[in-house]
Specification:
3 domains; 5-stranded mixed sheet; alpha+beta; Beta-Lactamase; Heat Shock Protein 90; 5-stranded antiparallel sheet; single chain; globular; 14 helices; about 375 residues
Amino acid sequence: MQLAPAVLTPWQRAPDDSHKWCFAKTMTQLDDSASPNSVATIGQMADLLDEALLLTDGSGVVLSANAAARQLFNDHIIGQLIFELIEDADFGKAFHKTALKRAELEIFYHPKSEIIRREFKLRLKRLGDGPIALLFLDMTRQKNLENVRRDFVANVSHELRSPLTSLAGFIETMLGSEVPDEAMRTRFLTIMDEEAKRMSRLIDDLLSLSRVEVDEHIVPDDQVKLLDVLLTVHDSLAGRAAERGMVIKLNDRRADKVSHPLMLGSFDEITEVFVNIIENAIKYGFANTEIDICIFEVSKKRLQIDVINHGEGIEQRHLSRLTERFYRVDKARSRQIGGTGLGLAIVKHIVNRHRGTLSVSSNLNETTKFSVVLPLIRAQNKN
């Protein structure tokens, strides 16, 4: 296989994300003598890419796949028919046109099996009389950034208006006239302090939510010991629960209590999930009751953690909307206890990022249960 002179030089020094486009440029400059014998060479080059690259023959049988392509589809993709992997009418038309007319085409591709919606710009090109190259340029992060910017501006402008108006009103009152007594002055300053803290919490939660949403399509790759997360959260919130006469109980119901379940993820993010859920259990549970954290094995590869509290419960009509940003079952009570309305939205996006599931069930004046199911990589013996 022949390459145009100096094709790799700009690719090697390409800044930021421009390398995504440089390999595509390399592919367009391949000599027309490209043949199936070039597959191995192209495959070696493709392994240097962060983007997924497939090579197929004219009938759509996959001949080569780099690491990113195997991660996107599966590890046994070689020999499979591309139309079984990408069931899309527009793709089928583009592929056949590329195979017959040697056209270079570009379409958008959305994997249907993904929990998280992802968007790819898919480039197809026949390499001379040889294989057909499919380059998947991941546009998900760019789209997420656009959505996050739009939502952040809309949310800040809407949610900060109320506390800012309140602050401005009290400041104007205190500047425009003398406050008649010290008690009223103290009351005004206390309300101003509460509103300022509320804005600070709101901004912190918005930034946290934005960070998770931008990279929601990327699974973190650190190893996390789930029991360590739960023990850390238990210890950090036990004192707060005790202030209301509540006790947090950790109940490991796994058959094998010797092993330590491991998952791929972010320790801090998984910790944030259970801090949010258990803080809610403390805030909305009845005083002098127990909060149960129950651990189950759904299968060898999935672990379920239930957080159950005893309280007023949540009406069924609210359950499906609990993870919407700024949705509050009781707005006055939520603000009174310091809620921003973003906690469960953050929980949902973190759980999605870790390819887990979140569900909620509740019985009025009895119990509310938050269930988080997370994928495991393996179990490790405890030290």
